[in-house]
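Reviewers of the previous submission asked for a worked example of the structure-prediction workflow described in the proposal, so we include one complete record here. The input consisted solely of the amino acid sequence. No template or homolog information was supplied to the procedure at any stage.
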Amino acid sequence: MSEKQRLTKQETIELRKKHIGPSCKLFFKSDPLKIVRASGSYMYDENGHRYLDCINNVCHVGHCHPYVVSAGMQQMAVLNTNSRFLHDNLVLYAKRLTSLFPKQLSMCYFVNSGSEANDLALRLASTYTGHKDIITLDHAYHGHVSSLINISPYKFNLPGGEGQKDWVHVAPVADVYRGKYTNKDYSMEELSEKYADEVKLLCEKATKQSGGVCIFLAESMQSCGGQIVFPPGYLRQVYKHVRAAGGLCLADEVQVGFGRVGSHMWAFQTQGDDIVPDIVTLGKPMGNGHPVSAVITTRKIAERFGATGMEYFNTFGGNPVSTAIADAVLDVIENEKLMENATNVGNYLLQEFNCLKQKHTIIGDVRGRGMFLGLDLVRNRETREPATAEAAFINKRLKEQCVLLSCDGPYANVLKFKPPIVFSVEDAKELVKKLDSVMLEMEKAENEVNGVLEKLSVNGTTVNSSSHTQSLRNGQHNEIQVKV
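From that input alone, the workflow returned the following structure tokens.
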């Protein structure tokens, strides 16, 4: 045990049970990891085991990047204070950050988390439009504060949620593989129009119900819904319908911004150069693990908000240390050509994942862009029945092989890949090799069981094959024992 580790893993678990709220979620809750240090794309537990991190979209430019760490240390040694004092870091960073957006998006509000950013965005929109009705997408998650739980089906539709409010309108997410409309029946152009028309119907409903729309908000690529990439032209049509109903359009870039998609700094730009949201929210990758986030909007919206007479301030938002760190993150993205890396490694992984798809029928769909990828696992490619238990088994076995991945989507059957964007081709090769190995292991176990059942059937023995199949689907391959 490292000399810095004052507690054993079990002692840490026991103290957590005693003092930390039970609803606070851990990765791999049946056998959680105790991570004590990290560097680049790797995390290390208390025993020195090294884990390849394929899910940590917070440490965007790599864990503990020395340049970012140094920027924070240097500024902290000089000054960190309430954001209501003048300081150059805030205004210089605001100038630099807004230069990365379309020129209309020129105003910043600095806050501390993606949740704070989205909550403030709702206030801006309500003040500007005078409307209350909100349009969100199914399976969406926008934050943990009360205002955002109310507009996040990922939360309000699950156990403990309060259900949908009458002023919240939920449009089907434009999931072309397993959504309301799919690529089985329609072209991409048709899918874009059909999903946009669903939003149009909700705009009409909100207008009839209460005079108009307040805001439409969507992640530019949806994460919790299962790594969803919208069909081309979708946001262009949606924004047109929402604005016709008096509403604003918000692009939530908390998970997919800052060059994660490789080709563009912001994921909404992948829908076209003419796509300009009214509000953009930023978070997770902005400070490489340091809590800093922002709302970017137009001058007209900011001035309307300011004209209410209610002062807005945020004690820590945009403080000198936070902005020094955020500025250093942009330096690293630029100097180390990490957007180019996201494109190159992402394209390599897409190619390799598609090769695995040819080899393993459990992979139904490979999707994504840059360092935002997903594998939709199925039990049957024709029916697209989700392979939920199998995904959980793969996730567990990869963790045992020191690769950290996660599952999401409405059926928890999508393997999510969104690592630090310093992820290398060598890292990608390790992931693909181990993923292939685990899938081969599953297939071998299933073939062995099927072979035994076939022999039993030939010998006239009655076998309840469904129980063995279910055991397989529950990931209990090593526990299956059938004797002839």
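The radius of gyration is 24 Å. We consider this example representative of the routine output the project will generate in years two and three.
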